[in-house]
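Troubleshooting: if your tokenizer reports a length mismatch, compare against these two reference records.
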Amino acid sequence: MSEETTPNDAPSGGSAGPAVDADATASTASTRRRSGGVPAAAAAATAIIAALIVGVAVWFVAGGGGGGGTRTEADVSSVIAAFSQGSDVTRYEGQLPPGYPKDVPVYPGARLVSSILQYNGDNVAYLAVYDTADKRAKVSAYFAEQFAADPWQIDLSHDGLDSTVQQFTKIDDANIAGLVLSGESKTDATTTIIYSVQVTGGAAAIKRPAFSPGASKALPDGYPGDAVPQYTGSTIIESGFSKQSGATTYQVSFVTKDDVGTIVSFYKDLLAKASLTVADGDASQSALKDAQVVTFTDAAKTLGGQVTAGAFAEDESYTRIDVQVTAKKPAQ
């Protein structure tokens, strides 16, 4: 299966001509289009097109090699899970998340399979997956018509070998932007429709359930807990590792009610006692609010990493601690 990339074509919807006179705004609302470029929210949508296409390709390949040669609900789970990595993400089965813009066109008769909601500060992003038995050409033609009509406009369109993408913005609400991708299975009569929608400032309108850290996850096997232990009294919310040639990198996240200053002091003292070189790190790249970073390494350069502590986005009464540790095999 070929892998597509997003072309640098001009937006299919085009931009309007001369500015509309203020007195004529009401009479020309049905044909007016934004000028002056794509809003920031729409630009953010462009960045995920390639990832969506790759995800759909993986999805269909998995379906082709699975039981009976058809795409299964397990394949849906795999794709959704891939886009659900990271913090502050909630998955919904067979329903749309709270706050999802209800006026975004839905293909008639399509079945909603799964969706996710992700918070990013004051903004929210949605991913929704639908299935239909109709052909991709019919599906994409429907969206081309729907998103070319008020209150929508198409800012980018790409019809490729394996999928069709239409990126859209909303004329009367610059805070809403997104894209819809349609991909047809090569092994069964299924066209999958994937929406990615961003709502700038959308978090304020959603009533979020009270956060509960739940049961603590286990530390990864081989994690160097003697040198870089779990913060006292914290709950592990994420845990993982990756292996490279001669080294393993561990990533673990905790939440605690303790403040950032207390956590940073804890790790600075503990890491120094473990004979590690400790320094203040650069917190400017952290997504955590009011973050502080501590870096550490041993004399032989076989163990190093950093600890980042900052406000937990889902509930700022908690502090999130992200620990990254790389352990290298000693030179022979």
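Reference record two:
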Amino acid sequence: MRTFLSALALIGCAVMTWGCARMMSRRSATAPQASPDELGQLKDEVAPLRAELANSNESAPPEGPKV
């Protein structure tokens, strides 16, 4: 009986994992894709932010261990 319950839990977990993966793949297939114009706009917005982040990391003093 103990083996049966262990096998039942294992089978239930496998079935739920399969079902979850199947639902997630369906959702990603139906998700709207960004247009090339939207991607270009996002790249234009992200470039200055990355440059600003790189500059702030260069000018920040290195953080050492607190003594």
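Descriptive notes for reference record two:
- Residues 57 and 63 are 11 Å apart (CA to CA).
- The chain is about 80% helix and 0% strand.
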